[in-house]
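Record pair follows.
FIRST:
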Amino acid sequence: MKTAKTYMEEANAAVPRMGAEEAIAKHAAGQGVFIDVRDSAAIAQTGTIKGAARIPRGMIEFRADPAVEAMYDPVFQKDAAIYLVCGAGGQAALAGRTLKDMGYSDVTNIGGFGDWKAAGGAVEAG
């Protein structure tokens, strides 16, 4: 039987983590796609990364699968560098593991939005 801890360990092993400073440099250079996987209420309270796609973790499978034409989001490209952010890094790791399982190879967990903001990353209102 798997536990939440098991899922997190597997996700963290599969999805590399990047610190806020390095992620901010990637963002500033226009490299990759940034996706906030928190729900809309959390984003409304705190804001998000400037220009980030807003795709809740619970919708990742549908939005990342081109076969689900009515829900697919073209922000998902198999060869794109994808950077995921959430509240503290857990949801981003789990969403990243799902994307890896779906064939997305360049997926990185950039941790929590609070770290991004504290490090001076570009933000926008939720």
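SECOND:
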Amino acid sequence: MKKVALHNLGCKVNSYEMDVMQQKLAEKGYDIVPFDAKADIYIVNTCTVTNIADRKSRQMLHRAKAKNPQAVVVAVGCYVQTGGEQALQDDCIDLAIGNNRKKDLVEILEAYLEEAGGGRESEVSGRNEISGRNAGLDGESETVKGEDLRLRKTLRSTTVVDINQECEYEEMTLTKTAEHTRAYIKVQDGCNQFCSYCIIPFARGRVRSRRMEDILEEVRGLAASGYREVVLTGIHLSSYGLDLRQKAVEEVDFVDLVEAVHKIDGLERIRLGSLEPRIITPENVRRLAALEKLCPHFHLSLQSGCDETLKRMNRHYTSGEYYESVKLLRDAFEHPAITTDVIVGFPGETEEEFETTRAFLQKVGFYEMHIFKYSMRRGTRAASMPGQIPAQVKEERSGRLLKLEREQSRDFRAYYIGKEVEVLFEEKKVQNGQQLWLGHTRDYVRIALQSGEELSNCVRRVTVTGFLTDEIMN
């Protein structure tokens, strides 16, 4: 029985896919061990959304090879999808698998182990069809075990398996997760937006939606297994159903899907992943507000509060339109949690543009903001734009927004002091000899309760008495 260690980087879609890969490995009899343990096989589900994500992906791959130089190190996902020859030249990677083949991980791994004997002598690779070329690889292709696993000899010993993003949605089904209370459900992949700073359409391909009945079947199974909460997630969640409608497969959109999930017995909470503000229309908000299981926690991606910056980013809305979406949600839901992403230091961002963004963030008043310093991504339009911002300027602007974020988050949470809230408890923590149960409200505020009871996966109503300490929060 081979020991396999897995490590995930990046978004909730990656987390879902990692859960499925781990599930498949366990079902085939592999012994799943912690990533810090010595293993025969290390699998790193990589991310490439920023340069920092690339660096972290490389670091984890190198850490795995250092832990056991004889192990097979498998790099999966976005970093190897977009890294091309540069990624293949990394001596730590034995096997590289693109995003659309994660569902075939076990079959690919076993074919590799059989053909290569688990060693690094084998020189096989697959076509990189994202760019319509072989990424500098050569050799004859062959089919392994009758499966469509294209292996091709390369100039070195890394193996890359058939990266192709023009296919249909790659079906994966989850029956259990690492968490015991909340399950992330991937409902679509890919993005058609091509924001000028973003590499993800090249890493994930075009929009591909999962059939609604396949989603509902998975959610029914998880609800029957005791999961009380699901989070619907995707690369560009708001585009769910776009391709199905264009191909006349199903006449469904994202709100149709949420309404269908809401009808599933046993499920108590539905959360939504990141949404585009344009999906927040009066009609959609009316339909969502009628769903009692829907958690009033909305992550609306902003990126900038300055219209000129938004244009350069190729975002398809204005700050005014964004603000109207927020107002619609606040009119329909009592004290909804609005969270967002903001990029500081985008090429050409003047001090005046930054101040416009800062003032807009102050005006909206978010529960949480994820502040990112602009990271140049090779292959995107923004990488060649004039007016690249010095690192120290980005750092200073980021610091100002982080201060604002802390103030706004505290203001949002202060609203609940003295109020009774519903909490789904998820994990136990012992601090100073006391047993604490940690969980989240419907709008994703973290709550701690001192109790000797067993509260895992239990819903309780509690009265909030004050703020959590940093020690508990972390």
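COMMENT: DSSP finds 14 helices and 19 strands in the chain.
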